[in-house]
Predict the 3D structure of the following.
Amino acid sequence: MSAEKIVLAAHGSRSPEANASVVELARTLGERLDARVFAAFLEMAEPTILEAMRMAASHQARRIVVVPFFLAPGMHVRRDLLRIVEQSRRELGVPIVVAEFFGSHAQIPELLFDITRAALGHAGGAGGPLRGPDDLRTRQE
């Protein structure tokens, strides 16, 4: 396993299911990268981003890579996350790199197009459009 540790930094939600999906994404990412990935939340859930960085450092991280799992470069990405990273750098003494935020990836518009096209019925997609919460639960099972 890599000496680099990854913190997948998400907003956080009052919904346990939403937070669990971030934890599962972190687990999957860690398996694919053969690295330790810590799910972390800016607010409304734990561990916080600072707590996750502390955990990463305690696992002998030589470097921490923070991956902002945010769609837009709002204040959480431009201000709040960077403030936490600076605090962590001072406190932990471990090099910390911040990746580009998720929504900045060049393939996001194409993914959005595919999802929209599927909902419009022009492609097979992932089972067509969602008609309500029961459809989402069924697809997740």
Q: What stands out?
A: The chain has a mean pLDDT of 90.
